[in-house]
Amino acid sequence: MPAHSRMFRGPLTALGLSAAAITAVLDQASKLWLLQGFDLADKGVVKVMPFVELVLTWNTGISYGWFQQEGPLGQGALLALKAVAVALLWIWLAKASSRLSAVALGLIIGGAVGNGIDRLAYGAVVDFVLLHMETATWRFNWYVFNLADVAIVAGVIGLLYESLVGGSAPKAP
Q: What is the extent of the structural domain holding 89?
């Protein structure tokens, strides 16, 4: 096997890539349903629970809406950065020695791919879940996010858990 192929293959790569594929498919399915089937854009704010609302937001930046990029050059740069990050995460996945690490890295890869598909298709990432707390006198809004973001956070938590408690997490390349 050529050296570049070995760089992307390891004993748990298939498990991690399966987690990535499932994550990206679920993320895209939820976004397509909310945009096309549920028509969230026309519904505006939809209260789901006292502290959860569905609200359509187009994020042209990175996490938390930082570094907003409206033009094609900025969007292309963010997409290129995401592609490099996915490649590096895949190399890390090939070195994974535990199922937890493989699934965690797969969740991160799948979330990045899901949000990358949005950026290609729409020029922005589709975000739709808003968590908030409120009383009679104030309201605190968390940032608006999507399933890809949840997967990325869950993957990071899995890697942190394994590195702090499990002890067998692979070292980043």
A: 12-166
Q: Which of 27, 42, 118, 127 is catalytic?
A: 127
49-53, 54-58, 105-109, 169-173: range with lowest mean pLDDT: 169-173
Interval 136-151: pLDDT, tens: 898 898 889 999 999 9
Q: Which of 27, 39, 42, 149 is catalytic?
A: 149
H helical segments located in the chain = 3-7, 13-32, 40-43, 72-94, 99-122, 147-161
Return the closest-CA partner of residue 23 out of 119, 127, 104, 144: 104
Query: Has residue 172 been placed in a domain?
Result: no
Place of tokens 């930082």: 66
Residue corresponding to tokens 């394994």: 162
Answer yes or no: is 4 within a domain: no
Q: Is 118 a catalytic residue?
A: no
Do the domain assignments include residue 87?
A: yes
Whether residue 6 lies inside any domain: the answer is no
**42 is known as an active-site residue:** no
For the whole model, what pTM was predicted? 0.86
Amino acid identity for residue 13 in this structure = T
Per-residue pLDDT tens for 105-127? 999 999 999 999 998 999 889 99
Amino acid at 15: L
- The structural domain count of the chain equals 1
The phi and psi torsions of 115 (rounded to 5 degrees) equal -70, -30
